[in-house]
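To close the section, here is one more complete example, presented without commentary so you can practise reading it yourself. The ligand is adenosine-5'-triphosphate.
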Amino acid sequence: MKTVLVVEDDIGIQKQLKWSLSDYELVFADDKASAMTQLRRYEPAVVTLDLGLPPDPANASQGLACLAEILAVQPDCKVIVLTGNTDNAHALKAVALGAYDYYQKPIDADVLNIIIQRAFKLTELEQENKALKASNSIQLDIIGNSDAMLKACRTVEKIAPTEITTLLLGESGTGKEVFARAIHKQSLRNNKPFVAINCASIPENLLESELFGYEKGAFTGANKTTLGKIECANGGTLLLDEIGDMPLSLQAKMLRFLQERVIERIGGRQEIEADVRVICATHRNLAEMVASQTFREDLYYRISEITLTIPPLRERGHDIIIIARALLHKFNQDYRSQVHGFTDNAIQAMLLHSWPGNIRELQNKLKSAVILTDNKLIDAVDLGLNGNHHSKLDTLRKVREQAETQAIRHAYAVANTNLSKTADLLGITRPTLYALIDKYRLHDLRHTDHDH
Ligand SMILES: Nc1ncnc2c1ncn2[C@@H]1O[C@H](COP(=O)(O)OP(=O)(O)OP(=O)(O)O)[C@@H](O)[C@H]1O
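Output:
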């Protein structure tokens, strides 16, 4: 059932609304403070607000202040202002401040229901629009259309709207952070913060305070109370990058947070609720770490409600070239260069390279190539790659020549340098063999011909 927050101090009207709006779950507040508490608790898409609230019921000042505060906390909220029938000016002021609509008492259940229905419909459309925008940008952020990547993107679309704790696995530089951001962008939390912390790059003793925050005076140098990343991500998403590098001592504290969704700042005694969606990422093999007892098994199961493995670049086939072209376009803009593209040799070399550093390695190689090259096309050598990959592009004629030469030499050796026997072994006549020897310039074979 959809929830409507009714901000109304008159018990009689509260009852009347309850009766009129029976299709909705109504939650009530009778002044500004309780309205804000209910708003945070229920996050209703639609609010009806009586402008004449205590302590100043005869005037609209409290109501208008309440409206402004509601919209500051929840800008998408549709606030329908209820006014007395002589209160036109205040109603218009409320609409100017951002109220969705206004309605004059006495209450007509049918009319009010239609207004509320329209407000919910608009919210739905806005949310769909947002999701659409998010899905467009995921396509822009995650370049590639190999089967492996399309499958990974489909998984993102499925898990994003849920609250499931996701573990992203993949080699360094495969785009784990890009995927985490895509999940956040496609989720309902997309207008709330996305906060990332790299557990490997922060010294062990600092990681705890970075994550959980600290109270003033908790330790020497703690001059003021500071929020940790978990609190900063409240309402949104937290990416714990390189979770495999989190020290065991901190893993226990992390587990408690994931189970109970409350934290305590260092030096604090108060439990603080944190509504955070957690995504973890690592290039390590956590299952092996669990076996060797360097990663807590209970934490492993808690963070891997769903696991998404991001394929290494070398398994993405032609995506390598699509990403390279997109990056080239970007670097051309960044460095005001005018490199048009890649030589065949470069494309071949990129397809054959194993990319141990994945997309980050591709970025680095391309960046330096764009900056250093004097040519219009980037070659394999500009990328620091071995350009001897012509064999893959050999013509059929060349392949045939190599195969025939090899077969002739092999038969010649087996025939103990006797050319008649060589021809027999190959199933051809002697004149044909001579013709081939001339064609492939195998003159050393003629010189040792013993049957002449
Ligand atoms: N599919 C993609 N298309 C284009 N750029 C990408 C793609 N995936 C990743 N990138 C870019 O590659 C770089 C590395 O990505 P990211 O930092 O997400 O990798 P990671 O797996 O988190 O790496 P690490 O494990 O080292 O932290 C980033 O600059 C990112 O923008």
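Once you have examined the tokens, check your reading against these statements. The mean pLDDT is 89. The chain has four domains: 3-124, 142-309, 314-391, 396-447.
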